[in-house]
């Protein structure tokens, strides 16, 4: 069912209109805040080369670039992301190959082996709670894998291309996330003093290249990280725009956001997203970044809330499909491990969301402001859900009444 809005629309169809409403706005502000994060990151990266130029200047330039790319056409966005992704893929592949040689002692002159995995408190530094506290930060980097579903509504041949893309996601996560982290673990110990410095020169990837004796590694990695930031900001703006456009056409947002120009671009939705992202970025310049840190945490948590929505919607969709007399053979793609898959995803994401509260305890004391920041996204989601439910008086959609149409 490759419809625009993807799982946000599915939540309204297969669970409850209020659930879809909360999911949609949750997903929109998640990516709007991500735009702000990437704008801030771009400014910091450029200061590596030009420290005397204010960071907000470079952030404004990046905002202008990603707005320009998204204003051209969907094809323009896709073409740009293709080249961005190609550069990132080549970098990670080269890093993994170089890292294997360094770990084996072929490059750099020192054989590292697996010693870092048993060094000090490794591999579970800080115990179970320490590992749990890392999930939200790590999860933030995984946000975006669900964009393959969001883009399905504008895919040329979704029945063929989307299942193919979904299957590739698994292998790409295994190679480019798990593979790269495994190599970093071999080369860089968790207590390396360089990791605490706020500089691209101490990126784990940069440290890995340095161990191989590659001198210009900092400059190369800085340029690649900048491209990564552009790619992430580009995708964030795309996801935001399409989500708000879907809501404008579903009576979940003002109808003006459902309009498109002659090139099929929802400009009003994109401009509002860009403005909100810019305003969120400005919070990083004032108030000792407290509000900005709240927004950053809310963005990560709201991503997990979106995955909770995907798991629930998928579970309900398959139940409704059978309840309405359909055969699974009609589906062009069937996710493996159903119903265990979405149930595991639901439990794990819920545990991670609730477990973020451990960060509010420091030296045995409870910090309310930290706890508020950790659960801000959850609070907003609950307000959106029950607010819409009370106003519209919505109810859980019976399985036999779920809308399975492709429009």
UniProtKB/TrEMBL annotation:
Keywords: Amino-acid transport, Membrane, Transmembrane, Transmembrane helix, Transport
Coiled-coil portions: none
Regions crossing the membrane: 28-50, 56-74, 86-107, 127-148, 169-190, 220-245, 265-286, 298-317, 337-356, 368-388
Subcellular location: Membrane
Amino acid permease/ SLC12A domain mapped to chain residues: 1-396
Pfam assignment, any one: AA_permease
Top-level taxonomic group: Eukaryota
Topological relation to the membrane, as annotated: Multi-pass membrane protein
Name of the protein: Amino acid permease/ SLC12A domain-containing protein
Organism: Basidiobolus ranarum
């Amino acid at each position: 069912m490759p419809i625009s809005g993807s799982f946000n629309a599915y939540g309204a169809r297969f669970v409850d209109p209020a659930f879809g409403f909360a999911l949609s706005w949750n997903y929109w502000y998640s990516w709007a805040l991500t735009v702000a994060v990437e704008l801030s990151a771009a400014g910091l990266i450029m200061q590596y080369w030009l420290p005397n130029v204010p960071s907000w200047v470079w952030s404004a330039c990046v905002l202008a670039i990603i707005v320009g790319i998204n204003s051209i056409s969907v094809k323009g966005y896709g073409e740009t992301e293709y080249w961005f992704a190609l550069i990132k893929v080549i970098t990670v592949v080269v890093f993994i190959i170089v890292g294997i040689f360094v770990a084996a002692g072929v490059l750099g002159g020192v054989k590292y082996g697996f010693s870092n995995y048993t060094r000090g408190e490794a591999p579970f530094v800080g115990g179970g709670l320490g590992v749990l506290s890392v999930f939200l930060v790590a999860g933030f980097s995984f946000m975006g894998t669900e964009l393959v579903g969001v883009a399905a509504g504008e895919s040329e041949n979704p029945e063929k291309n989307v299942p193919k893309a979904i299957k590739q996601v698994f292998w790409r996560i295994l190679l480019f996330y798990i593979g790269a982290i495994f190599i970093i673990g071999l080369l860089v110990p968790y207590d390396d003093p360089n990791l605490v410095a706020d500089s691209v020169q101490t990126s784990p990837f940069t440290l890995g290249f340095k161990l191989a004796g590659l001198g210009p590694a900092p400059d190369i990695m800085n340029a690649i990280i900048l491209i990564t930031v552009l790619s992430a900001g580009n995708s964030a703006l795309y996801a935001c725009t399409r989500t708000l456009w879907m809501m404008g056409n579903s009576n979940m947002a003002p109808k003006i956001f459902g309009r498109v120009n002659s090139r099929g671009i929802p400009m009003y939705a994109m401009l509002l997203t860009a403005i909100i992202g810019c305003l969120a970025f400005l919070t990083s310049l004032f108030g000792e970044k407290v509000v900005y840190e709240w927004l950053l945490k809310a963005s990560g948590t709201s991503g997990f809330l979106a995955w909770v929505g995907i798991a629930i919607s998928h579970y309900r969709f398959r139940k409704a499909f059978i309840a309405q007399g359909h055969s699974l053979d009609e589906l062009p793609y069937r996710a493996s491990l159903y119903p265990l898959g979405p149930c595991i995803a639901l439990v794990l994401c819920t545990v991670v969301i609730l477990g973020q509260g451990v960060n509010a305890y420091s030296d045995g004391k409870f910090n309310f402001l930290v706890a508020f920041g950790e659960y801000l996204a959850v609070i907003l989601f609950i307000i959106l859900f029950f607010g819409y439910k009370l106003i519209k008086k919505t109810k859980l959609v019976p399985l036999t009444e779920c809308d399975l149409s492709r429009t």
